[in-house]
Write a structure and sequence with these properties.
alpha+beta; 2-enoyl-CoA Hydratase, Chain A, domain 1; seven-stranded mixed beta sheet; five-stranded antiparallel beta sheet; 23 strands; 30% helix; signal; S41A_metabolite_peptidase; ClpP/crotonase-like_dom_sf
Length: 610
């Protein structure tokens, strides 16, 4: 496998894994450091949209003193919400299923262990807290600080990993450089004196938390065929350990060492608002600034929309039909590039499929790489759009449940008795009963047996727009044998639910791209269920015991989705079921730059399969 440097454009990354909204401060200044003086030049540079040096950024963020009371209050709040509402708390303690790579974690125990520690700075405490939560390897769950996580650390290069096409079939790391194009296409043999491949694997294993599958995390560390997506090794949200990284490059005409500094920017709102004035919660920080909810796609929307624009120019071996839709193999195979499951995207999806159908595409590739998820009802909608036999009624889909506790029971009863039309997780009228697909008859049916705190089984009803589109759209020509799913594993949340359902219940074959050589890899990741923030939970559940201080944001998975069999019996929690792809492709020096090469390969697999 080869790692290559790719151009990285700052603006594209401003939404990448950035904390929703939070602000960090300490109530008193350290005798040794004054955050205002340490950060003043940094602040001025950011106000003028300039970069700063690593050392200046480090001194600034480490100048906020550690506050034991703030730390204790934060741990109390995080522990309360995670123990009361996080649906995977017990399963996280268990050994990972075969195919997944992570360490079991007793989260509450580890959070309590943080109380015994004294940290050098506020940043050190926040980092320890984030890393503790990241051990869950749950992409829906994280702790975000708007000051620290709005820093962006960029190497101005990209690495990608390719598998050679010779008999040796080695995995190599290739380089593409924004600052010095003479480094483009050089092979990276070592990083910081260690073999490049192992360095990336270690980073993916230890520093990336957005999947339980190491192969998917490995892909996220590098650049996929959309060159401007993940790249978490060279584009980071947390302060790197060192001010530079040294790469050993093997180029066509020479081999040498390249040492590259981090350039540091700040995204989002004014630096002062979130890192200075928030020490006293300034008037500029309003209640609207705090995160009020989230689907997994929130932090990726800007990124993906811009990636779409970049992608079109890279397509050399497919015929453009309309935005996101192409034809390959003499126009016999259609390609639908689906980058999210947002309800406002379903009209374009239907239109694109209609055009492929009209052009006579005999088979269909669903490219769901780098899909940011979205609304769970769209997952159901996609299956009904392609396989309309159940359009006349709400079909069964992966059911979900929530934790039930003493706060939520009165709220659930009140919502039911008042026929509330609020759309929240504790309103029985927001969901349908599984497996009947009908409204809940009473409160107890929604609440369920409360075994291990979990509720009854719930389904998300389709929206009016979805029902109207299904009713007005004619059947497409493609059968399950004539469709194949292609992903690089980063098909998250609602995307994961959609692909898992199509694979399991319609027997659509799947292809995973990239990952580790000769190691099975998932075609989707963190199907979870649904995530939200602690302040939304407090509002919906009436839980006002505590709150996360200083406008920081805790996001957590509050719904877990279940697999089920033909008898409508649940058979496991999707988040902890390893589902490897049926087929495997690897990035090479061609398809790493142009995804149409992958589509041609997928079409060949599809033709052989059928």
């Amino acid at each position: 496998m080869k790692i290559s440097l790719v151009y990285s454009t700052f603006n594209i990354y401003f939404m990448l894994f950035v904390a929703l909204l939070a602000a960090i401060v300490s109530p008193s200044k350290s005798n040794k450091t004054d955050p205002e003086s340490q950060c003043r030049n940094v602040s001025k540079a950011f106000d003028n949209e300039k970069l700063v040096e690593y050392d200046a950024a480090k001194k600034c963020i480490e100048s906020f003193p550690f506050d034991p009371k703030f730390a204790d209050d934060t741990i109390n709040a995080v522990s309360h919400f995670m123990s009361s509402y996080y649906v995977f708390l017990d399963q996280a303690k268990e050994e990972p299923p075969k195919g997944f790579t992570y360490q079991p974690v007793d989260l509450i125990k580890e959070l309590n262990s943080l109380r015994k520690k004294t940290f050098k700075s506020d940043y050190d405490f926040i980092t320890a807290l984030r890393n503790t939560i990241f051990k869950l390897k749950d992409g829906h769950t994280r702790f975000n600080d708007i000051c620290y996580q709005n820093f962006i650390y960029d190497q101005n290069l990209t690495l990608y990993s390719v598998v050679t096409t010779d008999k040796e079939k080695k995995q190599k790391q290739i380089f593409k450089d924004k600052l010095d194009s003479s480094n483009n296409n050089c092979e990276v043999t070592e990083i910081e004196g260690k073999p490049a491949l192992q360095t990336i694997i270690d980073f993916a294993n230890n520093n990336i938390s957005y999947s339980k599958d190491l192969g998917v995390r490995f892909n996220m560390a590098l650049a996929p065929s959309i060159n401007t997506f993940s790249q978490l090794f060279t584009l980071r949200e947390d302060l790197p350990e060192t001010s530079t990284i040294t790469y050993n490059l093997k180029c066509p005409k020479k081999s040498y060492k390249l040492t590259r500094k981090w350039s540091v920017a700040f995204s989002g709102a004014a630096f002062e608002n979130f890192c200075f004035e928030s020490r006293n919660i300034s008037a500029k920080i309003t209640s609207e600034d705090k995160a009020t909810g989230s689907t997994s796609s929130d932090k990726f929307k800007t990124l993906v929309s811009r990636s779409k624009n970049n992608k079109k120019s890279n397509i050399k071996h497919a015929k453009f039909v309309t935005e996101g839709f192409y034809l390959v193999n003499d126009d016999k195979v259609g390609v639908a590039v689906i980058t999210d499951e947002n309800t406002d995207s379903i009209f374009d999806l239907v239109d694109g499929l209609k055009q492929l159908n009209k052009r006579g595409a005999e088979k269909l590739i669903l490219d769901m790489s780098n899909n940011i998820g979205g609304d769970p009802t769209v997952s159901t909608f996609i299956s009904l759009l392609l396989f309309p036999s159940n359009r006349s009624k709400q079909p069964n889909f992966f059911p979900t449940s929530i934790n039930i506790n003493n706060f939520t029971i009165p709220i659930i009863k009140k919502n039911f008795d008042t026929h509330s039309n609020d759309s929240d997780d504790y309103n029985p009228f927001s969901f349908l009963s599984f497996p009947s697909g009908k409204p809940f008859k009473n409160v107890n049916e929604f609440i369920g047996p409360r075994k291990n705190l979990t509720s009854g089984l719930h389904l998300n009803p389709l929206t009016r727009d979805e029902l109207h589109l299904l009713k007005s759209t004619s059947h497409f020509r493609w059968t399950g044998d004539e469709i194949i799913i292609l992903t690089n594993g980063f098909c998250i949340s609602a995307c994961a639910l959609a692909t898992l359902y199509l694979s399991e219940f319609y027997k659509i074959k799947t292809i995973a791209v990239g990952g580790l050589l000769d190691t099975p890899m998932s075609f989707s990741t963190f199907p979870g269920g649904f995530d939200t923030t602690e302040n939304v939970i407090a509002e919906e559940a009436g839980d006002n015991i505590t709150e996360v201080p200083r406008e920081n944001a805790l996001l957590l998975t509050i719904r877990e989705a279940y697999d089920f069999n033909k008898n409508n019996i649940t058979t496991g929690v999707l988040e902890y079921l390893f589902k490897p792809a049926d087929f495997r492709l690897y990035y090479n020096e061609s398809n790493a730059r142009d995804p149409s090469f992958l589509w041609v390969d997928a079409a060949n697999i599809l033709n052989k399969k059928s």
